[in-house]
Amino acid sequence: MNGAVAAPLNLNEIVTDETPESLCDRLAPNPFAGFGPDEWGQPFRTVDYYRAVPACTEALANHPGEPRFALGAAMAYIAGKKIESAKPLLDKLITQGNTSAMLVLAYVSPEPEAADLMHQASDAGNANGMMLYGMALMTGKGVAKNPLDGVRMVRRAADAGSTRAMLLMANFYNEGAYGVGLNPAEAKVLIAKAAQLGDPAAKNILASLAQEGESGTTPQ
């Protein structure tokens, strides 16, 4: 093996009753919608490159103005390590103000460019963009390190509805980290709020706390 990625399958070779549109939605869903990806470090890990590329490109050809199919095709290319094929699709979406495209491109860009894209998504009101930019500020990845402003941005993301940001803030309150002060009660409020909104990780944490009958920390 030379490490090259095989060409995607032809859609006609796939035995399925699904339309290209349905396949694209299922195989390459927007990882930054809803609760975000299962693994924030690898948001495209579950994208099926071999089937999603033909499905999403056909869906996009059928619906040229539909952003979700362009985003799906871009993510499929990224999953197949075809970054240069993804970039034109993402660049076009970004010019249209698509914040999910900003975050997708951020994940495959050098740190300074990634931080700028996260900042753009944050300024446009994307809650997960706020959370990611806040973490960039806290760690100094691609931007001058500023933990105080970073925590403020994560809190802003939590207030804007990012359940991941709620769990991060819960961690900080549980540990008294980053200047927020030790406050397990506030941590539990945030975990409960995230669970009430349907976040699976928050539900698991609440179940674990109820079973153990003691405080715990949220996932890092």
UniProtKB/TrEMBL annotation:
<dbReference type="InterPro" id="IPR011990">
    <property type="entry name" value="TPR-like_helical_dom_sf"/>
</dbReference>
<dbReference type="Pfam" id="PF08238">
    <property type="entry name" value="Sel1"/>
</dbReference>
<dbReference type="Pfam" id="PF14559">
    <property type="entry name" value="TPR_19"/>
</dbReference>
<dbReference type="InterPro" id="IPR052945">
    <property type="entry name" value="Mitotic_Regulator"/>
</dbReference>
<dbReference type="InterPro" id="IPR006597">
    <property type="entry name" value="Sel1-like"/>
</dbReference>
<protein>
    <recommendedName>
        <fullName>Sel1 repeat family protein</fullName>
    </recommendedName>
</protein>
